Every structure is written in structure tokens, then in C-alpha cells.
Automatic annotation (TrEMBL):
<dbReference type="GO" id="GO:0005737">
    <property type="term" value="C:cytoplasm"/>
</dbReference>
<dbReference type="InterPro" id="IPR035909">
    <property type="entry name" value="CheB_C"/>
</dbReference>
<protein>
    <recommendedName>
        <fullName>protein-glutamate methylesterase</fullName>
        <ecNumber>3.1.1.61</ecNumber>
    </recommendedName>
</protein>
<feature type="domain" description="CheB-type methylesterase">
    <location>
        <begin position="1"/>
        <end position="189"/>
    </location>
</feature>
<dbReference type="GO" id="GO:0006935">
    <property type="term" value="P:chemotaxis"/>
</dbReference>
<dbReference type="InterPro" id="IPR011247">
    <property type="entry name" value="Chemotax_prot-Glu_Me-esterase"/>
</dbReference>
<feature type="active site">
    <location>
        <position position="39"/>
    </location>
</feature>
<dbReference type="InterPro" id="IPR000673">
    <property type="entry name" value="Sig_transdc_resp-reg_Me-estase"/>
</dbReference>
<feature type="active site">
    <location>
        <position position="131"/>
    </location>
</feature>
<keyword id="KW-0145">Chemotaxis</keyword>
<dbReference type="Pfam" id="PF01339">
    <property type="entry name" value="CheB_methylest"/>
</dbReference>
<dbReference type="GO" id="GO:0000156">
    <property type="term" value="F:phosphorelay response regulator activity"/>
</dbReference>
<feature type="active site">
    <location>
        <position position="12"/>
    </location>
</feature>
<keyword id="KW-0378">Hydrolase</keyword>
<dbReference type="GO" id="GO:0008984">
    <property type="term" value="F:protein-glutamate methylesterase activity"/>
</dbReference>
């Protein structure tokens, strides 16, 4: 009989500490393969394999594209690359970003769901926003096991809380109990559930896995697979199509970038603030130009003209001051608390 021998883990803010604790609790004879996405800046150097090698008894590496994977190993996404899994290989690709991230938790989880079904276990740990929610939905939809770190136990609770809101997971546990749970679940023999996707669902899932592996979203007809929305992609300004996964709404553009509604709202909010600061910059440039023109008029003996310029400059200073105050009082469209849990 089959066993659950594929464990995919996603973490973001606070994730390195959480991953160290989790890996430390796994036994040396852990007989499943672990794949990890830890959000990291594209330009950063990741030391996570070395950190986890010192934390526990399992060997951790950054895989190369096409590497075969082995049980009892930990494979970690390199910076600025998705990792995907199929058959016995790891794919390391620079497909389009998802939820503003590459590597993407959703992309890894979808590939595990599509290729391994009930043999996959998805784990979402501490982090901000909601990467991992859509991927966990796919894992559960295809018979896998869903686990989240208890939000009150997580340093940043947003990611596990999002999964709990949209996905009927199997376990919500503190980190201290997660290693033992994973060891138990990967040791059990399982009977495959009788789950089937509709042809449309299967085609969408297959296409999204291929998009993450650098296939052309437009040529694969992504625009025909979802409902056209009135929104444009914050990354490339391409048309976004809408997908529904239970209660979750997601978007993807024809070039391949993907967003949940939450991550799209976060991008919209960032755009609002960016454009407000641009407006401040334009007004302040107008002030400098008006004052320079006023001084030139005064030096030329045109006191009346100089006063007109200086008056306009004062009016624009008031406008700039009001805009400054508005920006600092502006509440984000999507409230996202970046303060860690005190209990974590």
C-alpha cells in the first residue's frame, strides 16, 4: 500500500526559526522527502541549507534543476526560483511570480497535489499575507493532508490563519508537536481516496503547474480558462482572469503572474501610496520652480510678478502639507499587521 512520502512546507516571516525547530524534531530515519519554500529576497544569499543541517539530522540542500530526490532529504528552493516536483525529479525554474513571490509556496504545493495526490502532506508555517492557501486547497482537493501551525503559536499568524479561513485542513498544531505528527503520518499506509477532478479543473491545475515551470501562459490559453476581470496585473499591466477555489478568489494574467484577492489588494494599496508620493514630488517641484521664477522676477524689478509667483508657491506648500498628512493617516486597503505575536 502507498504511504504519504511527500512533505511540502511553506514559510515566510519568522520561518527560519520555525523551520529550525521543526527539523530538529524529526528523527534520523524519517522516510519521506521534504521540500521547502522559505520566502527570501531575490538578491539575497540563502544559508538555509547550512542552518538546517546544523539544526537536525536530515541533510538539506538547494537542488539543481532536474535533480532526482531521495527520502530522508530536505530540498529548499533557491532565491528567485520556484521549486516543483514531478515523478522522482525536482524542477528549479524562474516561472512568473505568484503573490509577489518567487519562490512561491502555492506553486510548490500545486505541483505536489497534481503529481502525488494523496501521498502529499502540505504544511504552512508562520508568515504574512496568504501564500500557501491556494496550494493547500489543491492538496486537499486531491486527497492529501493539510497541516498548519496554530496561528497563536506562529510568530506571524497571517499565512496559517488564511489557510484555516479558506481550507478545511486536517491539523492545526503548535511547532512542538508537528515533528511527531509528520513522523506518524508518513509512517502510515494509506488507501487512496476516490477523488476525481472535472476535466476543466484538471486542465487548469496542469496549466498552472506548467506556467510555474516556465511554459507560456498565453499560448496555453490561460485567458480562456477563467472569467475575465476588470483588473490589470500590478506586475505587467496584463489582463487578469478570475478563478474560484471554494471561497477563495484568485487571479492570473496572460503572462503568468498570479495573485490571491488578498495579495492583489496589497499590490493595489502599494500602488495608491506610490502614486500619492509621486503627487507630492510633482507639487514640490512646482514649488521650487515657482520660487525660482519669483526670485528672477524680483531681481528684474517686477515686484508684482514676483509676488504672484510667491503666492502660488505658498498655495502649493499648503497642498503638499495636506497631502503629506493624508499619506501618513492613510489606512491600508488590506490591514496587514507586521508585528509578531507576543506569544510566539
Amino acid at each position: 500500500m502507498a504511504k504519504r512520502n511527500i512533505v511540502v512546507i511553506g514559510a515566510s516571516a519568522g520561518g527560519v526559526v520555525a523551520l529550525k525547530e521543526l527539523v530538529r524534531s524529526l528523527p534520523p530515519d524519517f522516510n519521506a522527502t521534504i521540500f521547502i519554500v522559505q520566502h527570501i529576497a531575490a538578491y539575497a544569499t540563502s544559508m538555509l541549507p547550512e542552518i538546517l543541517n546544523h539544526a537536525g539530522s536530515l541533510r538539506a540542500v538547494h537542488p539543481a534543476d532536474g535533480d532526482s530526490f531521495q527520502p530522508g532529504m530536505i530540498y529548499i528552493a533557491p532565491p528567485d526560483h520556484h521549486i516543483l516536483i514531478e515523478e522522482d525529479r525536482v524542477l528549479v525554474k524562474k516561472g512568473p511570480k505568484e503573490n509577489r513571490f518567487r519562490p512561491s509556496i502555492d506553486a510548490l504545493f500545486r505541483s505536489a497535489a497534481y503529481n502525488f495526490g494523496e501521498r502529499a502532506i502540505g504544511v504552512v508555517l508562520t508568515g504574512l499575507l496568504d501564500d500557501g492557501t491556494s496550494g493547500m486547497w489543491s492538496i486537499k482537493r486531491l486527497g492529501g493532508i493539510g497541516i498548519v501551525q496554530k496561528p497563536e503559536d506562529a510568530e506571524y499568524s497571517s499565512m496559517p490563519s488564511s489557510v484555516l479561513e479558506y481550507v478545511d485542513v486536517d491539523y492545526a498544531v503548535p511547532l512542538a508537536k508537528m515533528g511527531a505528527l509528520l513522523n506518524q503520518l508518513t509512517s502510515e499506509e494509506i488507501t487512496p481516496p476516490h477523488l476525481t477532478l472535472s476535466p476543466e479543473e484538471e486542465q487548469i491545475l496542469k496549466t498552472e503547474v506548467q506556467i510555474a515551470s516556465q511554459k507560456n501562459a498565453f499560448e496555453m490559453g490561460i485567458l480562456e480558462m477563467g472569467d475575465l476581470s476588470p483588473f490589470t496585473c500590478p506586475e505587467c499591466s496584463g489582463v487578469l482572469v478570475r478563478f474560484r477555489e471554494g471561497k477563495l478568489i484568485r487571479y492570473r494574467c496572460h503572462t503568468g503572474h498570479a495573485y490571491t484577492a488578498g495579495s492583489l489588494l496589497a499590490e493595489v494599496d502599494k500602488s495608491v501610496e506610490d502614486n500619492l508620493w509621486k503627487a507630492v514630488r510633482v507639487i514640490e517641484e512646482a514649488i521650487m520652480l515657482l520660487e525660482e521664477s519669483g526670485r528672477a522676477s524680483a531681481e528684474g524689478g517686477d515686484d508684482l510678478g514676483a509676488e504672484r509667483f510667491f503666492t502660488k508657491a505658498r498655495e502649493n506648500r499648503e497642498r503638499a502639507s495636506m497631502l503629506h498628512k493624508f499619506i501618513f493617516q492613510h489606512e491600508p486597503v488590506l490591514q496587514q499587521n507586521g508585528v509578531p505575536n507576543k506569544a510566539a
